[in-house]
Amino acid sequence: MGHMAVRQAEVAAANLAAAIEGREPVAHYQHEMRFVIEGVGGEGLYLRKDLWTDEPATVRQNRFWNWAKRVQQSYWEHSHS
After folding, report:
1. What is this structure's pTM?
2. How far apart are the first and last CA of the chain?
3. Are 25 and 19 in contact (CB under 8 A)?
4. DSSP structural state of residue 34
5. Which of its termini does the chain have fewer beta carbons within 10 Å around, N or C?
6. C-alpha to C-alpha distance for 33 and 1, rounded to whole angstroms
């Protein structure tokens, strides 16, 4: 869920800079959920949902998502050690 914190920080920084310069807020945060659930049998489940709209969630299931989650975790661990 760290991607939400990064997106929130970008909006906060842009709006803080606008406030310092005496302008109205320029950025708006679009809240969404995006995650992968590791599944049984090597398949993972990907879900993405914009929480401020009535649009249906995106759901995908296949082996790619387990692989992608492992790659992302490995990258994060190596870049933060």
Report:
1. 0.58
2. 19
3. yes
4. E
5. C
6. 8
